[in-house]
TrEMBL record:
Source lineage: Eukaryota, Metazoa, Ecdysozoa, Nematoda, Chromadorea
Entries under PANTHER family matching the protein: CHLORIDE CHANNEL PROTEIN 2
Record field: transmembrane: 20-42, 72-90, 127-150, 162-182, 208-229, 250-270, 317-338
Protein's name in the database: Chloride channel protein
Keyword rRNA-binding set for record: no
Topological relation to the membrane, as annotated: Multi-pass membrane protein
GO cellular component, one term: plasma membrane
Localization per record: Membrane
Length: 340
């Protein structure tokens, strides 16, 4: 609070830049390092998205402590702190892992009363339903949750598990929507997670070709994303110098990444080109707004002034969007290598 008050009273540009940078750096580093340390000592099995572990378990391989209560605690606390630090870390994988752990703990509890749940096949059914509920709680999409649970199993998916997965996903989606209603004072009823409105003629036939090109481009960049991430992870594991850092001073890598990320996203520095001063929830709301960013402010379809200011720092809106996409494309790769 002392530093923030100094920042507000600072008249000198250099002093203002230095103080805001220190506050930004300290906040990012403290929150993320707390997440890393908590996960490291409480449940190191919680490191990563959790989806590869679930695929392995559903194929019949036992992973020690992967579905334990300690891992659940580490996953929940670590994820909350990691997202709160501002890093571009997704929730889908961790939610799938959390849903599966909860399903496993429930089945172990019920096993004391109903011996049928001691069957290994029944445990797999519970885990598949947990995966579906995890995705449903992420996007409030029960059908997507069921489809994803089918995708996770990859090898086979028993027909009898369809209704179980859909029931778990529907319950998870309903609870998620109700909790969002009661925790957000602006909501008066249960609504879609991201509301959209489309005109009777939402697009023109000529635009279908552009949509196809966008899908092709996103597919290619997604494949490149996975390749770059794989090469980076292999480098961190095989490089002799990085091995020494991870084995003897494992906290050094998160510190370096936090300092790098905080420097790039500092709002007064480079961060003004990638909307570093706002959280991702605000960014997503901007993307889903029913208005035209590039329209003249006098036109009715133009966005509000705050959106225009937020996305046109020193350049045009299109230039800043390009920098935003490229910047967070690579920052997401780096962030996903952190041990949280």
């Amino acid at each position: 609070m002392y530093l923030m008050s100094k920042v507000e009273r600072a008249d000198d540009d250099l002093l203002n830049f230095a103080l805001t940078y220190i506050v930004w750096m300290v906040y990012t580093m403290v929150v993320m390092l707390t997440s890393v340390i908590f996960v490291h000592y409480v449940g190191p099995q919680a490191i990563g998205s959790g989806i590869p572990e679930m695929k392995t378990i559903l194929r019949g391989v036992q992973l020690k402590e992967c579905l334990s209560f300690r891992t659940l605690l580490a996953k929940m606390v670590g994820l909350a702190l990691a997202i709160g630090s501002g890093f571009p870390i997704g929730k889908e994988g961790p939610f799938v892992h959390v849903g599966s752990i909860v399903a496993n703990l429930i089945s172990r509890f019920v096993r004391n009363f109903k011996s049928a749940y001691a069957n290994e096949s029944r445990s797999c059914e519970m885990l598949a339903a947990g995966c579906a509920a995890g995705v449903a709680c992420t996007f409030s999409a029960p059908i997507g949750g069921v489809l994803f649970s089918i995708e996770v199993t990859a090898v086979y998916f028993a027909v009898r598990d369809y209704w179980r997965g859909f029931f778990a996903a529907a319950c998870g989606s309903a609870i998620f929507s109700l909790l969002r209603l009661y925790t957000h004072s602006s909501e008066v009823t249960v609504v879609a997670f991201y509301q959209t409105t489309f005109k009777s003629r939402a697009f023109y036939p000529e635009e279908l070709f552009i949509f196809a090109l966008m899908g092709l481009f996103c597919g290619i960049t997604g494949a490149i994303f996975i390749w770059i991430h794989r090469q980076m992870v292999l480098f961190l594991r095989r490089n002799s110098f990085m091995k020494i850092i991870f084995q003897r001073n494992w906290i050094v890598y998160p510190i370096v990444i936090c300092a790098f990320y905080a420097t790039l996203t500092h709002p007064i520095g480079f961060g003004r080109y990638i909307t570093g001063e706002v959280v991702f929830s605000r960014t997503l709301k901007d993307f889903f707004m029913n208005c035209t960013w590039s329209a003249d402010p006098s036109r009715f379809e133009a966005c509000s002034g705050s959106v225009a200011v937020r996305w046109s720092a020193d350049e045009s809106i299109f230039a800043e969007l390009t920098v935003f996409v490229i910047g967070f494309y690579f920052l997401s790769i780096v962030a996903s290598t952190l041990p949280v």
